[in-house]
Inverse folding.
């Protein structure tokens, strides 16, 4: 079918609109909103998620929640985008990582890009959020209000150094929650014999074990039993 000038113009308009990316912005909040506002100006988004946690020295829960809700109402009214507020259990790595993981899992099919605004987080929260961004290969940025600094996307490739057997052992330890209390527990859970378990956990002359990789930690118990727990990196 041939197009006249008007038809071609309409076709280009629809093509451009179809190529517009849907962006989810996740912003850290501690006690200021300036960096969050600047982040939305610099990276227009279709949805905003605010992550925050309450420290003992912070303002009262009610005052903070009222401040956040006032801002949420403004964003929804002025920008016309949805805003979700998530209170973190703590600013420690495991809690931050688990929250970012759930966000990625829930929204990755709905949005073309998920970006992380680190500007207004406290130091520990910012470091742990950036580490989580590296794990999931997310864009993260910080801004001084004038221009953004975008961190490089770094995807961790630990899976390349982990054999199927090591991964089976990690999964077995994870299922036990508090870790296993002996090598015999892992023999029962995985089907590998004790020598194989010991080799994969402790390593050998030609291969690095899970301990050396920083994925598990061990503790010698009574009667020679070896307790094994996942480290934070092992849980990732």
């Amino acid at each position: 079918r041939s197009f006249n000038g008007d038809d071609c113009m309409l076709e280009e308009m629809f093509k451009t609109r179809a190529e517009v990316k849907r962006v989810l912005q996740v912003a850290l909040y501690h006690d200021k909103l300036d960096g969050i506002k600047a982040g939305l100006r610099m990276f227009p988004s279709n949805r905003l998620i605010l992550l925050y946690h309450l420290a003992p020295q912070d303002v009262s829960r009610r005052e903070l929640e009222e401040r956040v809700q006032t801002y949420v109402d403004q964003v929804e009214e002025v920008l016309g985008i949805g805003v979700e507020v998530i209170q973190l259990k703590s600013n420690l790595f495991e809690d931050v990582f688990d929250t970012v993981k759930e966000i990625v899992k829930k929204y990755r099919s709905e949005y073309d890009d998920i970006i992380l605004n680190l500007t207004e987080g406290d130091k520990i929260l910012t470091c742990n959020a950036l580490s989580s961004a590296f794990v999931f290969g997310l864009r993260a940025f910080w801004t001084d209000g004038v221009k953004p600094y975008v961190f490089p996307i770094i995807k961790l490739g630990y899976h390349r150094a982990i054999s199927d057997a090591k991964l089976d052992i990690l999964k077995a330890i994870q299922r036990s929650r508090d870790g296993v209390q002996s090598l015999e527990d892992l023999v029962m859970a995985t089907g590998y014999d004790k020598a194989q378990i010991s080799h994969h956990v402790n390593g050998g002359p030609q291969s690095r074990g899970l301990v050396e990789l920083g994925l598990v930690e061990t503790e010698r118990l009574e009667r020679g039993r070896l307790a094994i727990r996942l480290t934070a990196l092992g849980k990732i």
Observations:
- DSSP finds nine helices and eight strands in the chain.
